[in-house]
Amino acid sequence: MKRLNPRYLVTLTLLLLPLSLVIALTLGPEIINPLELFDVFATPSSNQLILEKIRLPRALMAAIIGATLAVAGVMMQGLFRNPLADPSLIGVTSGASAGASLAIVLGAGSAIAGVSFIALGAFAGAVLATTIVYRLASSSSGTSVATMLLAGIAISALAGALNSFFQYIADNHMLRQISLWQMGSLNGSSWPRLAMAYGVLGSLLLWMPRYSRALNAMLLGESEARHLGIYVDRVKRQIIILVALVVGVAVALSGTISFVGLITPHIIRLLIGPDHRYLIPCSALAGAILLILADAVSRIAIAPSELPIGVVTAVLGAPFFLSLLRQQRNASLIAR
Question: pTM score > 0.70 for this model?
Fold first, then answer.
């Protein structure tokens, strides 16, 4: 595949992002003419209520969640030096799912500062799972990425077992709540939650590009990165903590949304190469665009009902990802 100029891709994604927002605002059970969007905001109407209370908060939430998951995927792939890595490898997603299921089974339906106890349970589960994995992988000689991977698989299996247990003891209403949460949804998006998401996730996302040089050096190997002046163990520790925080918050706000953190960085890497100076911002923009459009599709696929957004990303992402892998395999066979 011929690579693009990274600056060209940054410009292209910056242009596509507002276009995807317009598409998200117009599509739904009630189609709104894009040419009338500004008139709708200016004149009180039922469409204005739909836009202000439902579609605009959801579109903006989809943008920050998509960007977060995509950048978290970039960081994990750079850390493990594997383009097929994603945050679920260190147990973040599984821990969040188990924490949310526990909160649902306990009947925690109230909220603090607009954040439900289910979301708080998901965040606590993500942090706990990551802490255990990190403790198991850390020693006086440093942090072992291989041990972290194995510990993440074990913790994910344990969290999956706990999740299955919570589903077993849940009643029908709780079981449906757990199932819907695990399929992902932006249905609970509101302006207070949006302010919290952009305040927390936005600040952390702005911090992540500072690791571009370290991740580029680590692509050569850890020993080579040390020779280039990179404090490898400290960088690994900081990346793990950052990824755990952003994914924990993202999963707490939207549930489990698959493939965004895996497929988006992989596609961008194929387009512009592995330079993290451009890979991180381009993946953030592409992840935001992907999830905004996926949310729009979820609203119209089986209208007037709504399809869980995690189902949409999996249905769209899996075949596309498999086709990319097939093209990559064919290219390597031709090169031989």
Answer: yes
